[in-house]
Structure formats: C-alpha cells, structure tokens
Amino acid sequence: MNRFNQPRWLHRRQAAIFLTCFFLGLLLVILPTNLTGSSLSQPMLLAPIPFPNSTERSALEHRPLPFQTVEIPDEVRACIESSAERVDQLGTVQDQGKTFYLLAVYSDFASNDPFTASDELISVAPQAGCIRLVDSQSVRQPLTVYLSPRAAQSLEEQRFRRYITLLGGANQLQRTLSDRIKASQGSYLLSEEQVQVLRQLHIQIPDTYKLLQPNTFPD
C-alpha cells in the first residue's frame, strides 16, 4: 500500500509516536541540568571536590596522628614475660654479634604513657635464640651492664625519641620527666647514658636526680 493511501488514523498514530519520542528526548536533556544545577559538561560525579578553607586545612594538618605500634619479631616475642598485657618496641641495636631489643611492657591496654611501663631487654643470637636479660622483676641497672657503652647510648637515644613520639613532643617529655624527678624528692634514677642523651635532645631536667650506677643496688 502506498503511504499516501494509508488510512488517516494511521497518520495520526505515527504523528503521536513522533511527538512522544521528541518530548521524552527533550526531558532527558533538561531534567539533569535542573536537578544538578550544572551543565551536561560537568555532571555531578565529575564536579570539583570542595576543599576546606585555610583555617580548616590548618587544623587538619596539625591533628595528632593515631598511635603507631611497632611490629616485634616472633623470635623476640618468644622471650617476653607471659604477664605482659601489651608490649612496645623502644629500640634495637647490634652488639657483640647479637641483636638487642629494648621493650616497654605495659600491664594494661589503656595507657600510652611510657613512664608507666617496665623495661625489658632481650638479646637474640643467630644460633642460641633469644634470652631475656631484663624484665619487670630485675634489679635496675644501666644498660652498659649488658651492652657496650656505644650500643647502650644508642638504645637510650631510641628510647627517648620513642617517648617523644608517644607523649606528643619534646616539651611534653621534658614536663613529664621534670614532674617525676621533682615528685621523687631526690630519689629518681637516671643512668649516665640517659643524661647524655637527654642533653643531646635538649631536654632540660632538674639536677635533683640520682645517678644510676652498676653498684646502686648491691646484691
């Protein structure tokens, strides 16, 4: 049948279909622009991400970082005293053909104050494995009793740098240490290596501390 001979109702149907498709296409173009308030060249998913102003950005940059734990090797964990609730590694050094680990042992999971922890010193030898040299029950001694002076000073420097990280800055370390020395009324103990390291880190402390020596606590 020639299209000019088609019934009139068929022409009206084709016209209605054409107009419907035209308006649907027009809606698809207009609606996204009205809903997003932007042109099609900048859809919502590609819109610029708003950044905080200078004051908000400064606050974010100076926000304290979460407490970072240090992974302790399995061969060291094998010698940690069983009563320890939480352990943090303060430092490690190579000396006398062994690897020495200085640990802070906490009796609870809540505290991050290293001054509430007890020291633990563990040595690891290639063939002999680990040996716990110092724990919470040990008589306090300078680290030079167990290591060379150079290695002992290295561990003490790592200790206090870790303290600075845990306490939130050198000023906080100085304040905490000074308060403890003053409160002890002349009985607070610091080894010679600790005093040297604190001075190198520019930590000022009261001179009322007592020097810890190998014979401070005789047998």
Task: Provide structural commentary.
The protein is an alpha+beta fold and 219 residues long. It contains six helices and six strands. It has a four-stranded antiparallel β-sheet with strand order 1-2-3-4, covered by helices on one side. The protein has a two-stranded parallel ribbon with strand order 5-6. Helix 4 (149-167) crosses helix 5 (170-184) and helix 4 crosses helix 6 (192-200). The longest helix is centred in the first third of the chain and has 29 residues, at 8-36. The protein is elongated. 16% of the residues are buried. Mean pLDDT is 79; it is low at 35-52 and 54-67.
Describe the structure using short key phrases.
219 residues; alpha+beta; two-stranded parallel sheet
